[in-house]
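Task: fold both queries, return tokens.
Query 1:
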Amino acid sequence: MKDLSIQNFTFSKGKIFPNDWLQTKPYSFSDAIDSYYVSVANRVAAIIQSSEFGTVFGEKREDILHAAICITGWFEDICSDLGIWRVVGDECLARYGTVLPFYDVRKYERGIVNPEDLMLLVWDLAQSAREKEGKIVNPENPYLQKLAWNLYDFLFDEYDIAPQNDRLYDYVHNPEASDNLWLARELISWLSYRSYIGHRTRATICESRKKARKDKDMKRPEMDYGISSMISIISKENILSLSAPHFLSRIRGVSERDDAFETIEYTQMEPWLFLGFRGDDMLLRNLYNDREIVLDSYSMNLEAMKKSDYVPDKTLITCQVLKFNGKNCLCGVMVSGDYTAEGKAKVEKDRNNLELRNSQQDMYDDFMKLTGGKRYIVVPDMESLTDFHNKLFKESGPNEKNFPPEIRNGKNFLLFVTPSNGFITIPEIGVCIASKTNPCYDKQAAKEKALDLIVNRTCVPYPLSRMLLADGVLPDAFLNSIKGPVHGRSFFQKNVRFFADYFHQATMEYDFDKYDVNMQ
């Protein structure tokens, strides 16, 4: 298998060539099957180019060609029974009660080419292209649907003659990947940012590399590898908001999840103190939480290491740790250096911040007692906020100075707490909460702001968004529709849980609090 580092698409002379197609594959040489799909991709690009919807992917010809590669990758998945889109249907059915959001699936037949599949895929690609602009593409856009139907007419005719890509199928479903760390990581990287569902992660990795390269002290090959490895593991930038390991556990498991991928755990890049060697394995202590681990030598390049460079209790190691089949493994690059006074001060500061956040998590029970079992409340002004704050923190007197300016100058506060987020105060959004006990509710203001509580992950955390949806207090959120505001509201509310998961890049199964795991 080839190196899965990201290279730029060439798109020479405005066409898709085999080398461009190979950028989405885990092998280095194309064959007749790849040549077939390259020809399909160029036909798909021509259909997009001629449509009224084509410019939504971007103003450059390259943007259309990239969308065409993704759509053709989906077609290859369907024809080769890779299982990626099958998982999309399975998950949507389990979560939302329908095999696809947005569209009428009464005539839908799974496992073949359907216009509804193409509508959803085109919407995902278009939405990703417009995300930086803060725009939401309406899934019912008539030009989007017309493009999907034109693609369907072409791909449906090709479906009967399209070859299966057995090389790719064998790679995705290789049983050895469940026991081999290197095969598993390679497969995770492929799905995360090279397959057609990984187009958003690919863009994130490229942007992260671009920013990191401004640091002259960073070594480019090691840095690029480290960024790709870390983001490929943690990213949930796909249509199901699943990490690549969890996505793969479903693809490979078919009837039951592949446990090796399902149980993968990972840390962020964190500081560890080197304690010594046990054979070739490393003994490390996490400087944030004092957890000690054995880092398996199998995951490290021992030939590039000098054991004499690692001094117990004096060497600081920064790395991401991946737990695979019960073993702690190095993921990406390992940066080592002396544990200096400056490094100790920084670690201590980060640790204090983490301890403060953890102490806030302990407020969950106190908050629930104070609110009579309510997970969130709305207060209208600073006086009410100060009063609640004093009761929660067992303080007394005015404490406006403890609040940042956006709080001190705000009103209509929404207060909530969860075990994972701690106590959070958000100003100005209390007007959106359509509750009988909320004196701040303003229907007109809610029409303007409520949508953000569902589709803007920088506005409210995912657990709060799902709490509000479960309680039915965001009825004013809607999408503009050519069919009118009533239809726009009805359509959005029907698909609101999908929108919340998609835009927050989170799921109830993996990203919600343990206290509320049964909430739907």
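Query 1 returned. Query 2:
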Amino acid sequence: MTSSKNFSSTKEYDPTTDRDAVLEAINLSRGIALRYADKRLKADRILVLEAIKSFARSKSYGSANPFRYADKNLKSNYQFVLEIIRTTGKIPPHIDDSLWSDHKFVIEVIKGKSMDVVDYLDKKLWSDHKFVIEAFQEMNDQNIFTYSLQKIDMKLLMNPEVAIEVLKKGNQLDCRHDMEFLCQTGLHCLSDDERLWSNPKFVIEAMKLSNGEAFEYAHESLLSDKDFVLESIKLFKRIGLRYGIESLKINREFVLDAVKEEGLELEFADKRLQADPEIVLTAIKSNSNAIDYVDKSLWSNRKFVLEAIKVADGRALEYADETLKADREFVLKVVKDTHGNILSHADKILKADREVVFTAIKSSKGQALQHADENLKTNREFVLKALKLGASLRDVGKSLCSDREVVLTAVKSDGNNFKYADKSLKADREVVLESMNHAYGNDMVLGNVDKNLWANRKFVLEAIKLWHKNTQNRFIEHPFQFANERLRSDREVALEAIKSTNGKAFLDTDPHLRADRQFILEAIKVSNGLVLPYVDKNIFNADPEVVLTAIKLLDKKNFKYSLPLRCVDESLWSKREFVFEVIKNNIDYIPCDIEVGLLSDHQVRITALNQILSTKEK
């Protein structure tokens, strides 16, 4: 009876009022236990925040968010709600509606990049131009930006200050650069409000966003605004004077500034200004294609043409008056001071003038010979001098392409000239070897050599040695590839080729030699073991003597020379004596990615090392 009395007199324990118990329950229930907490604890900032964190960690998005059970004062607490958003990255439901009409609160939420803010905030704010401007200034998320545009009061977009801010943000967030964006917002409608399209700042931003297309909607008043049109040219090139009014097209100072930005604006300038030397030269310097819009009257002006040639890199002579193209003194100066290839636009008479043409050849490093008169191209003395200056045998008269001295001179200047030599000289041993000696790579030479030479043993050996001496790129064609079948089975020739190609020429040897064990051993020696990858893997790469001969010769100073070891037949790696020999001779280059046979046996390596050390001690 006593215990019953004591129990009834003792205050019953209530876990919903126990802060520690509620905190533990919150963590165990993904925050939902907040629902059953005492009213006082539902106003506890720390407990409520912990409930929301627990809920967020569990990703229980289908369950009721515990914030719904929080005290009403917390739901309207500006700082607390922001803390939740910053902590979880999400806007909790059941926020007091008063916050969504709070300008300052909404701006802070927008900074947090939450899409939900667009739906939650009070619609009246989308009609407040000050709020809209600030909101767009703070937006850093393209999705929020584009979604917000659907909510704004369209009348606000007709406010230049708001519209400019919208377009600026669209440019910053790299929205689609076409007119679609403008169409979606209604900003493309000129008739809606001329205040927009007569505002230069707005139009410039609209142009940036639409890749210049918005220019066509600009109000007429802007087409006479120098600063606006010039800014348009700077941004989008040929978009200013084309639409500009006549007062700008005849304004010398403005046109000069315009062609500095984009030379092709010269096309839309007044004709009088297209004949102004300073404006024209400025335009050509900005864009050489502006030369097409120069007034014809200037092309007979000697001083102007000289300046134009310097600016346009010689192309201007093409447009010059015929009297200047035939003026010997003038053309001589031009080909000397600029590029000799300008000779192509000179009068025919001057293309046959030895001094003029030779001067052009000098300044063009031989290229101008192609524009010379045929009589000069067949003049032996003249051609020999031109070839020494770098002219190509391709541009020489056909009659001289069979002249041995002319061809030798040509190939000594550039071995690839061999391609244009007469067929009769493609079997000339000296001409071919000189071509090889002076060619950048031999592909242009080897494929054009007469077949009879590839049957000449002495020539083939000389060609192989010369190739090895001069060629840096080992992957271009090799002389041994062109040798006839008899020489491909010649052991001495084949071994010389294998030696000069680090083994690669083994693939071009006669099949009988490729199957000859003794020949393979010799090939391994002359190539320092590098022929191994080209040897028949099914036969000789499983032959211990062949493989060990290659291994002993591998150059330990160059890591790439260890690659032949990867061609070794796997069966050899299970033979103890073979593995010992490999380790003794080339332990640094055992392929680390091979885990077969005895190579994976640590004891074998230790034993081999001990043998090496004991041999050295003796």
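Both queries returned. Flag for query 2: Confidence is low (pLDDT under 50) at residues 1-10, 186-191, 557-561, 591-599.
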